[in-house]
Amino acid sequence: MINTLEDILACEICEGPLYLNTHLTMNAYSRTIDLSTRNSIVKNIDDIINQYLVYKCKVCGQEYRYTYKEIEKLARKKLTERLLLKSAREEIYKSPLSIDKYYIYCGKCGGYDGKGSCPLKIFNDCKIKEFPLDGI
Prior knowledge:
This protein is α+β, with helices and mostly antiparallel strands. It has 5 helices and 5 strands; from the N terminus they run H-E-H-H-E-E-H-E-E-H.
C-alpha cells in the first residue's frame, strides 16, 4: 500500500526510505533570497514554491532534490507497478494448478508459492514476466 512519501521515495544507492529535510531545504533557498527589500521577497515566494524540496536517506544520508511533479510521477509509477502486479496475481490464482512439482523462479511478483516462483504451466502462460516494471 502507498500511504506515505516513504512508500514512494527510495534512495538510489541503498534503497532506504527518504524523508523531507526542512533544514536542508531552507538552507538551499536561503542563498537565493535577497532580504534587502520587501519586494524581492514577495517576488521570490512564487519561485520558491514551484521549486524542489530536499529529501535525505534515513540509511546512508544521501540527499535528493525533488519537485512535486517528480514525486507525483514516482507515485504514479509505483501505483502502476502495483496495479500490474495485482492483475497478474489474479491471473495466477485463476489458473488451474498443475501437479508439476517443479517451480520456476522469475521474481517479477510474489509467485504462486509467495516467494517469486510458479509451476511450469503457470510460468509459461504468465504475462507479468513480460512487464517492463523497471522502465515504467
